[in-house]
Amino acid sequence: MKIWYGYGSEHSANLVIIGRFKDAATAAEAVGLLTEMQGLAAAGTHKQADKKAFYDVLMRTQLIDLTAADVDALAYDHSWQQNGNSVNVETEESDIQAIIKIMLHKGAKIELYSAHDYPETGYGRGG
Q1: Using alpha carbons only, what angle is made at residue 52 by residues 51 and 57, rounded to the nearest 5 degrees?
Q2: What φ, ψ does residue 46 adopt, rounded to 5°?
Q3: Residues 6+ positions from 22 with CB-CB distance below 8 Å
Q4: 68-127: per-residue pLDDT in tens?
Q5: What is the DSSP string of 67-122?
Q6: Could you tell me the end-to-end alpha-carbon distance of the chain, in angstroms, rounded to an integer?
Q7: SS3 content of the chain, % helix, strand, coil (to 5)
C-alpha cells in the first residue's frame, strides 16, 4: 500500500495583483520587465549551465534580487494587462515572488487578494 504524503497547490489559487504606479510610462516599463522575464523562463535561459545571458539581463534591468527560482515561476500561467498607471495580474499560481519583486522594483503600490473571496471585482476565474 502506498501512502500519499504530498499536496500540490498549483492551480488552486485565484489571485489578483494590482500594481499602481506613479504614471503610465512606469506601468508600461513594469509590463515590459514582466514579459521579458517570462520569456527567459519559457526559454529556460535561467537554467542553462552558462547563465551569463540571464545574469546580463538582471544587471541591465537592475533586478539583482530576482533569483532563477523566481523567474522559473513565471513559466506558469499568469496574465497581466496595463490599465493606465495600473498593472492588473491574474494568476492561478501561488508563487508570485517575481511579480511582486518586479512591481516593487518599479515603485508600485500593490494590492493583492484572492478573487475567490472578492468575485464582485470582476477579476480572476469566475469574476
Answers
A1: 100
A2: -75, -10
A3: 85, 107
A4: 889 888 988 889 999 999 999 999 999 999 999 999 999 999 999 999 888 888 887 765
A5: -HHHHHHTTS-EEEEEETTEEEEEES-S--HHHHHHHHHTT-EEEEEETTT-GGGS
A6: 42
A7: 40, 20, 40
